Amino acid sequence: KDNIDFYTSEVYSPSDPPMFPEAWPLPPFLLALVPLPKEFSYRNIGQIDNLGLELGVNARPFPRNEFMANFTWQADPDVTGIPVLEVNKPPSAIFSIGWSGWYESFLYSVTVNYTGEAYWADVLDARFHGWTEAYTTLNATIGYSFLNDTLDLMVRATNLTNETFQQHVFGDIIGRRVVAELAYGWNY
Fold first, then answer.
1. What is the pLDDT of residues 123-160, one digit of tens each?
2. Cα–chain center distance at 70
3. Is 0.85 topped by the overall pTM?
4. CB within 8 A of 174, min separation 6: which ones?
5. CA 20 to CA 14: how far, in whole Å?
6. Are 90 and 54 in contact (CB under 8 A)?
7. Are strands 106-115 and 3-11 parallel, antiparallel or unpaired?
8. CA distance 98 to 67
């Protein structure tokens, strides 16, 4: 109870535009059409009860190989004291499954991740609240270890199918990403 909420406590108006002309170069009357946040604050609000379950397994079915699976379920939050549309609704289901390992000096992994739709109400006001669609990503890593396993060269690919998605209603549009990584490790 008494959840902490981050909210817009004050907005600029036509009679109170931003102080510097370069901060708001447009005519002030536009601030009546599209309020611009002036101040943000925190407040304690209502009560939110969450109910969920997480199950996971990690196993090593073969030497130098690891399997993992994880499932999370969360019910819609039970909200009292505030409008339900002012509260984030997490994905009802998140699922991951993956395999990783190494053979001699080669490293590898592959994972599939699913995230259900979610409702976001933690940005600005209701005009900016909204849903993100469910998405699934396929990710892989390949690598090679050098110098007695002290130097690893890896290529990591996220979202191999390049199906775009957003993790947050105000988040970036995410597509495929490929990164090369060189990691050095030492023992003390």
1. 777 778 899 999 999 999 999 998 887 899 999 999 99
2. 17
3. no
4. 159, 164, 165, 166, 167
5. 14
6. no
7. unpaired
8. 6
Largest CA distance in the chain: 70
Classify residue 156 by burial, with Cβ atoms within 10 Å: 0-12, 13-18, 19+: middle
Separation between Cα atoms, residue 1 and residue 15, nearest integer Å: 38
Give CA–CA dist 53/72, Å, rounded: 6
Paired tokens of 166:
């957003």
Q: Mean pLDDT in the chain? A: 89
Those residues whose C-beta lies under 8 Å from the C-beta of residue 27, and which sit 6 or more positions away, are none
Chain position carrying tokens 């002030």? 28
DSSP track, 105-121: TEEEEEEEEEE--EEE-
- Amino acid identity of 59? A
Rounded-to-10 torsion of CA 135, 92, 59, 185 = 60
Two structure tokens written together for 29:
């009357």
Question: What are the pLDDT digits (tens) for 45-82?
Answer: 788 888 999 999 999 999 999 999 999 999 999 998 88
